[in-house]
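We were asked to recover a plausible sequence for a given structure. The inputs and outputs are reproduced exactly as logged, with field labels preserved.

PROBLEM: sequence recovery
POSITIONS: 360
GIVEN STRUCTURE:
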C-alpha cells in the first residue's frame, strides 16, 4: 500500500489503519458519535465544473470524501477504502416532494465513462447510510439535529426518485445529483455557484472569499499528483484486524494503480490515464453486449406478453358477444320444429272453409 503513502500519513493522526485481509487496509476515524455518517458534517456546494461538491468540515474530509468509498461493517463500524480517482463527492441520491437524501457509495460501486455508476453485486444502501434533510436545509452547514430519523430514510429508499447521477466531461467527473432548480424551488432558497481551483501550498481544502467581490467565494482544493500520492512521507503501521470483515473483497475492483508494474512507475500521468480509458472502454463494450443480450431477451418476452394480451382480449370480446347474442339451445329449436309440423298437419287435415261459403 505504499502507493497511498500520502493518504496514510495524512489520515494517521485522525484515525487508525486496519489490515482486514492480507494486503487490504482500511481506515477508521477516531472518536465519532454513534449517529455519525459520512457526508454529514459539512455542506453541499454547487459548482459549474463538477456539479455538487461536498465541502467537509472535518480534517480528513479532503481525502475520504473525494477518493474511493465508505462501508459500514458490523464489527469495525464505518471504514474508508483508498483509491486514486478524485471526484467532487461519491454518493447516491434520492428525493421526493419534501425531503432530499444522499448516501455514500460502497466499494462495490465503479464508475464507467459510458454507463456511469455500476455495482459489482446487488446493492441497496441501508437506512443507516442515508442523510435526509428538508430542502431548505440543503446547502447550509449541517449538524446532527438537521437530519431526519431513519424511518424517513426507509420511506425515501422505496418511494423517492433518482436519476443519472454521474457523468464524465473531458476526464472530469461530474456529480449531477438532484437538479439545482428543483432544490431551490422546493426549499425556497438560492444556491450560489462557486468556482473550484487547485492549489499547491498545503494538503487540504477550504473556501476563500474573493477580494474583488465580497459575496463571491472560491473552493480551493489540493489534489496530489501521482508522484505525490506515491511518496511515502512516513512509515505508518496498520493494526491487524482480529475480527471478520463483511465486505466481499472478491467483488471490489481494486485501484488500478496497484496493478501497475515497476516499469510503469515513470509513465506520464496522461499515458496512464489513456490506458485507464482504454481499460474502461473495453469493460464498457462488454457491458454493452450484455445489456444488448438482456434487451433482446426482454424484447422477446415483451412480444410474447403482447401476443398473450391480444389473445386474452379476443377471448373476452367473444365472451361478451355471446352474452349479448345468445344462441338458443338445441332442444328449443327441435321443439319449435315439432310445433310447426303439428300446425302444418292440422291445416291439411282440417282445411279452413272459404269466407264466402260462411257468409252463405
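RECOVERED SEQUENCE:
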Amino acid at each position: 500500500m505504499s502507493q497511498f503513502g500520502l493518504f496514510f500519513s495524512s489520515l494517521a493522526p485522525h484515525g487508525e489503519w486496519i489490515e482486514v485481509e492480507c494486503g487490504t487496509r482500511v481506515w477508521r476515524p477516531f472518536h465519532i458519535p454513534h449517529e455519525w455518517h459520512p457526508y454529514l458534517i459539512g455542506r453541499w456546494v454547487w459548482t459549474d465544473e463538477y456539479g455538487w461538491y461536498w465541502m467537509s468540515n472535518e480534517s480528513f474530509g479532503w481525502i475520504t470524501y473525494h477518493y474511493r468509498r465508505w462501508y459500514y461493517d458490523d464489527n469495525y463500524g464505518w471504514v474508508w477504502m483508498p483509491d486514486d480517482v478524485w471526484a467532487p463527492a461519491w454518493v447516491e441520491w434520492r428525493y421526493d416532494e419534501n425531503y432530499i437524501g444522499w448516501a455514500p457509495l460502497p466499494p462495490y460501486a465503479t464508475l464507467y465513462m459510458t454507463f456511469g455508476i455500476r455495482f459489482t453485486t446487488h446493492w441497496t444502501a441501508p437506512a443507516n447510510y442515508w442523510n435526509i434533510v428538508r430542502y431548505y436545509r440543503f446547502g447550509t452547514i449541517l449538524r446532527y439535529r438537521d437530519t431526519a430519523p431513519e424511518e424517513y430514510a426507509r420511506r425515501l429508499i422505496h418511494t423517492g426518485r433518482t436519476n443519472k447521477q454521474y457523468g464524465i466531461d473531458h476526464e472530469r467527473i461530474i456529480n449531477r445529483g438532484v437538479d439545482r432548480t428543483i432544490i431551490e424551488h422546493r426549499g425556497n432558497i438560492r444556491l450560489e455557484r462557486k468556482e473550484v481551483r487547485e492549489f499547491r501550498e498545503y494538503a487540504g481544502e477550504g473556501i476563500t472569499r474573493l477580494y474583488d467581490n465580497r459575496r463571491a467565494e472560491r473552493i480551493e482544493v489540493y489534489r496530489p499528483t501521482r508522484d505525490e500520492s506515491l511518496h511515502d512521507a512516513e512509515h505508518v503501521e496498520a493494526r491487524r484486524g482480529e475480527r471478520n470483515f463483511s465486505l466481499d473483497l472478491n467483488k471490489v475492483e481494486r485501484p488500478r494503480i496497484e496493478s501497475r508494474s515497476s516499469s510503469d512507475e515513470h509513465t506520464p500521468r496522461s499515458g496512464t490515464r489513456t490506458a485507464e480509458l482504454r481499460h474502461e472502454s473495453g469493460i464498457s463494450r462488454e457491458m454493452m453486449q450484455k445489456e444488448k443480450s438482456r434487451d433482446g431477451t426482454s424484447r422477446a418476452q415483451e412480444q410474447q406478453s403482447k401476443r398473450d394480451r391480444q389473445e386474452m382480449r379476443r377471448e373476452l370480446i367473444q365472451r361478451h358477444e355471446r352474452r349479448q347474442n345468445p344462441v338458443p339451445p338445441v332442444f328449443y329449436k327441435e321443439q319449435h320444429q315439432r310445433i310447426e309440423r303439428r300446425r302444418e298437419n292440422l291445416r291439411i287435415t282440417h282445411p279452413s272453409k272459404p269466407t264466402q261459403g260462411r257468409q252463405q
